[in-house]
Amino acid sequence: MLTLKKYQNDALTALVSFVKRCRSVPVRQAWDEAMAGQSRNGQDYHEIFPEIPCVCLRVPTGGGKTLLAAHAVAELGKALQDTDTPIALWLTPSDTIRSQTLEALSDIRHPYRQALAHYVGDRLRVADLESLQTVGTGDVGKACIIVVTTIQSLNVSDTSKRNVYAFFEELQEHFRDLPPSLAAGLEKVTAADLASQPFLTEKDIGRVKWSVANWLHLHRPLVIVDEAHNNRTDRFFKTLGRLNPAGVVELTATPVTGNNVLYHVSAQELRAEQMIKLPIVLAEHPEGWRECLRDAILTRDRLETVAQKETDYVRPIVLVQAMPKGGEATVDVVKKHLIEQENIPAEQIAIATGSQKELDGVNLFDPACPVRYVITVEALKEGWDCSFAYVLSSLQSVNSGKDVEQLLGRVLRMPYATDRNQAPLNKAYAHIVANNFAEAASNLRDRLVQNMGFERLDTAGLIVPQQPLPLTGGEGGTPPAISGLAATIPDCHIDLPAVPETQHWPEGLKAQVQIHPTSQGATLVLKGNVDTETLKQAEAFVTAKLPAKAREKVVQQFADHRAIRQAMKAPAQLGLSFAPVPQLCLELDGYLEVVEKDTLAELGDWSLLDTPVQLNNFAIHEMVNSFEIDVNGEKVTYKHIDVQQLKLNEVASHVSEQNLVRWLDGQVRQPYVSQFDVQAYLVKLLTHLIHGKGFSLTSLVRARFQLADAIKSEVGRLRQQAMKTGFQGRLFEMTVSKLEDVAQYSFTFDPGKYPARNIYQGSYEFSKHFYPVIHDLREKTNAGKTAEEFCCAQAIDAHPKVKHWVRNIEKQPQCSFWLPTSSDYFYPDFVAELMDGRVLVVEYKGEPYKTNDDSKEKAQIGFQWERSSNGRCLFLFAVESDDAGRDVFKQVSDKLRG
């Protein structure tokens, strides 16, 4: 089974936590809490169905939305409906995708099916609408049932004309002895149904339809909506309403207004997990399509030379987007040009259009396959995928290539979903017919955002210019864009609605700018190497008299250019490295070990079986359609439990204590506790609850999901106690390794592994940040004041002793520097490498650490890290103003004075 990437796990955790919370508080409150936890306050929730969670996961192209959805089904069943065998309705945007999804979920060897089987084993039925009639009443509640269909098959106004709403005798058993409360919400036979189903008579009018739609309504399906941005009509939501969903999860790369985006995955997160190639090395070709194609060939040839140094087989492929019929560079013209002018063997060229399907049946990953060029016009067929595609050559006009974004999506996927040893193979390459880099980059950026699910701020470090390629063949060396060296910052091109009045501009500014009138207004050009102040001054004068809408567009163009400048100056982009950051270690059994969570638990000499078996204040209060459970005095109310799923008459006779232990074992097991210990603990715990506390087995089985949550919480609490004991007992023995061992016991900031979110977009241009983008840093607060952490970042960036720095990302143990605490990891806000090779770590809080227990512990461990380093590490707990009245600039300066 494919293991979920961290961003997928984070998205799934956010989703499950949200729907669980929806069972104890109103959906809007749960939404506001989720947004606050992600620093996204102010995001409105669009209520589609009252008190039914309906949220969207935003995952960019190449991020594995379908795999995430497969994992979500069973987890949502447990969290929302208290069942590990839910019924899910999986809606796809087209019949092609429906067939592919149905086939994948039915194939025991496919990762999607394996993801489902991980939770439900062989208790799984996958069906389309037509085969759903074969699902028996015995399958309901005993197997996870997934119904895959297109949105169009359900989305009608007149239900009498669609089979899914038709009366079927085969479904009779599913509707036998329905109580009036359930029958009331189901669709009834009408006079209109008699015309399409002659076996019905007037006597049937008013009867409950034995229909597939009513069957779904009866069992309250979880609804998965793929490519959800396509479905925002009233008719679609009325259709969903007919099906009585328990919850709706939408997945898309490109959400629109109305999609409640609960969690969005950034492009930086995909790159950090090695799912996509970045950055995109972009070359513009004002000369025309022949030059565009020529340089794409050169890029591919050099990549193939580099690929020969890889252990895994990689054969770089160019995707050529030819012009449609009537254009100059049509498919036939391009193929002829490749063969006759560029000397490309015909067998290396394949055409993939609606009428020519030369890729059908071809395994592009086969080393014997000769194909190196694929010519197409529009998007390749749905589902086509080949991660060997490295170079996009779009010969269409940059303003008319409406399908370039899908082709670009093909070249972004990383071969084998892992970084290549040769750095050039970790990038994607695009050659586009355009007049200048700004025009090409702007168009490409818009398509990345609008059609591929990237945040606009994500694109700051995604698109870099390519240096001119050598015009001669042979061994002429690798061009800078391929080798990883810095390319020259491109000129800044700003499109204006009219020629600006410059008579009042400073003479120094007028000398730096060029203004070219155009049919749409004018283009202002600044050389790429102008200083930051000149760029700011130009923006201020250009936008001063513009109307609001025009000003917004111009400001965005300046922001895009600043982002390109920032990205191209970033040390990580230049191929520079960040000094190893020493980690805290302990000597255990004669060996030095980095202090991790497992280390601390071991120091506490913790064993689950040595702890008291109890769930203090555990209580179950059953009410209509709900449970209330008290654990340690904290009441949690779980709502929306389907009475049909409680199986009141079955649990007492069919579920034994041993069966419940086995089920709980699968739910609560953790990697840090052996299965033997967990099972022995569960046996003792159930004996305690049933025979010591007087709970009936039936009540525990009926509340088993809440019981599992309570046990997981208790086991986590016990482990936490052990970790705290171990931490406090050995804190002052923790030390940084000797200088000669630092490589082995340190953390390294790697280029390409910076999963930034909520990316910085301020006007201040930082000059020393190691990565091209900055994680979660705001220049202004909601009240319009300069943000305190921003001032801290400025102080670090401006200090002459700082070589480069990183805005450290929280909860990313593989990509960020952390120090241990008694409960978790502590991720300091900033990490800087100094000119003399030392490392500075800064944690920023608005108030002194002495006023807060959590801050006290962080300061304690930070200073221990500094003390034990023999002067190689510096730790600063910075505040807005310290006891001596020093601001953050002075605090940083004084820390680095020695």
Unreliable spans are: 469-486, 622-626, 631-653
Strand order across the largest sheet = 3-4-2-5-6-1-7
The largest sheet is: 7 strands, parallel
- Tell me roughly what share of residues is in helical segments: 25-40%
Number of domains: 5
Gross morphology is globular
- CATH topology (level 3) name of the largest domain: Rossmann fold
Radius of gyration: 31 Å
For the record, what CATH class of the largest domain applies?
Alpha Beta
- The overall strand count is 31
Number of helices: 28
CATH architecture of the largest domain: 3-Layer(aba) Sandwich
Describe it:
- The protein is of the alpha/beta class and 898 residues long.
- It folds into five domains: 6-265, Rossmann fold, CATH 3.40.50; 274-469, Rossmann fold; 489-569, no CATH class; 608-730, no CATH class; 750-895, Trna Endonuclease, Chain: A, domain 1 (3-Layer(aba) Sandwich), CATH 3.40.1350.
- Helices cover 35% and strands 16% of the residues.
- It is built from 28 helices and 31 strands.
- The strands form eight sheets. It has a seven-stranded parallel sheet. A seven-stranded parallel sheet has the order 10-11-9-12-13-8-14, sandwiched between helices.
- Strand 22 and strand 23 form a beta hairpin.
- The longest helix is centred in the C-terminal third of the chain and has 27 residues, at 704-730.
- The chain is globular, with a radius of gyration of 31 Å.
- The chain starts with 5 loop residues before the first helix and ends with a helix.
- Residues 469-486, 622-626 and 631-653 have low confidence and may be disordered.
